[in-house]
Amino acid sequence: MSTPNAQSKTTAAYVAQASIAFGVSLIGAGVGILYLPLDVWQRGFLAMSVLFLVTSSFTLAKVVRDRQESDSLRVRVDEARLEKLIAEHDPFKAA
């Protein structure tokens, strides 16, 4: 009894939409910071904050993805072990 591959595939349109949304939001934040009526050091602080937010978002997404992949792999290994035990078990054999 085999289980179907549960990994989902992303379409090219979804990747393009996510990339465009990321680019538009990052450019929008940059333009917003650029045109704020603030001193240069305040704009720099906001720009560094946005940069830190972006990089930490990528890191968080990678950690969540890696955890999901490791959980998925562990479940598949456990299922394979269980199937092996069931296949090797003979209910009519005396203990």
UniProtKB/TrEMBL annotation:
The chain crosses the membrane at residues 12-38, 44-64. Residues 14-66 form the YiaAB two helix domain. It comes from the Bacteria. This is YiaA/YiaB family inner membrane protein. It comes from Nocardia jiangsuensis. The lineage of its organism: Bacteria, Bacillati, Actinomycetota, Actinomycetes, Mycobacteriales. Keywords: Membrane, Transmembrane, Transmembrane helix. It holds the Pfam family YiaAB.
